Amino acid sequence: MADFILPKNSRLRPGKLHKAAEGATNIRKFHVYRYNPDDKENPQVDTFEVDMDQCGSMVLDALIHIKSKMDGTLTFRRSCREGICGSCSMNVDGTNTLACTKAIDDIKGDVKVFPLPHMPVIKDLVPDLSAAYAQYASIKPWIQAEMPAEGARERLQSPEERKKLDGLWECILCFSCSTSCPSYWWNGDRYLGPAVLLQAHRFIQDSRDEKTEERLQDLEDPFKLYRCHTIMNCTNTCPKGLNPAASIGDIKKKIVAQKV
Amino acid sequence: MWRGIDPIMAFNGVPMKSQQRPLSPHLQIYKPQMTSVLSIGGRIMGAGLFVGSFMLVWWIAALAIGPHAYEIFMTFIHSWMGIILCTGWAFAFYYYVANGIRHLFWDLGYGYDLKTVYKTGWTVVIFSLIATAATFYHFFLKDLL
Question: Is residue B2 within 8 angstroms of chain A, CB to CB?
Fold first, then answer.
């Protein structure tokens, strides 16, 4: 059931102000969500005054600056710093994105950084994605084919067949879209969410996969698929410019077509 | 043997519940935008139309009962309160119909492109405003003059 208010242990309390070093002239304020599982206190929002003359241009650069120069306990995931690993997905300036590809200059006023919305928080900006990963595993994200490949070589596709995977294979599973979806917030235990449904679509569209029918049947469920109400927050927020809502729409259409 | 991820036991084998992890903020921090506002708008207009449908019942009942009952109904409709409510319901109606058509196109597989989503979204809003203004002009403007 939809719970619009945060549970008691999740409500924010005022945090600390970390001042910039004296003499800094080019300061941006970063309000960052903090939660430490060890101190048994509610989460708080700390404010960091970042000296932009000492810091790179992306939000991730600022977080790294904070961690190395201001507060070493700040915890967040990051790896590639170029938008291909999907580790640093978080809520920046009110929408989900990758901290590494979000330019600080594109944000007006103070920069607000929160973990991906409506997720259990392990520490600071690190959400627990294990339920989302389990949902991903549930759609069998691999090619299922019983027929042996012709002539003991790779399974070939025509350029047209390959083209059907464009806009799908690029997904890096950062879960920005799923955690932007109000329907996933309220029904995330049973609704698969846009990220996982886009992945399901990726294998439904693959000419090499032989289980298309089974995949569609498995998704035909009031919760797994049909909690999508075409809100479109997913497409609006995808940092890779993909369109999970269109994927979900196509799955719905294919399920109908299968029955006619 | 790999048995897949057990979301309950995934973190250090300690059940999630006993760790009492906080839930990250959602509605509290997510920026309202065209997509979500129009969506929740549809729900709100739908709820408004449900309440408004009782008005229709009153109208039909008044018609059936006779001239005096109808007189009372018409007096209410053309009172300040009636005008505000009817204009509101007119907006809800136009919005709900236009947004419904938008959803029908989505269900047919059209209009998922983000630019189109914004265009059709604004179309719904502007159409509802103009249609409501026209309705108001036609039925209620003379009450206020």
Answer: no
- ipTM score assigned to the predicted complex: 0.93
Interface of A with B in 73-112 (CB under 8 A): 91, 93-95, 112
Strand partners, A123: A126
CATH of the domain at A54: 3.10.20.30
The beta strands (E) that lie in chain A are given as 13-18, 27-34, 44-51, 89-92, 95-98, 111-114, 121-123, 126-127
Helix (H) or strand (E) holding B92: helix B80-107
The string of pLDDT tens digits covering residues A33-51 is 999 999 889 999 999 999 9
Tokens, residue A253: 């259409």
Query: Which of 204-243 (A) contact B at CB < 8 A?
Result: 229-233, 235-236, 243
The SS3 of residue B65 is helix
CA dist A197 and A228 (Å) reads 10
The answer to whether residue B19 scores a pLDDT higher than 90 is: no
**B112 touching chain A per CB within 8 A:** yes
* Number of C-beta neighbours around residue A122 at 10 A: 20
Structural domain span for residue A238: 130-146+156-259
Q: What is the CATH number of the domain that holds A203?
A: 1.10.1060.10
Interface contact A202, partner B, CB < 8 A: no
Domains of chain B are 45-144 (1.20.1300.10)
| Domain co-membership, A111 together with A137 | no
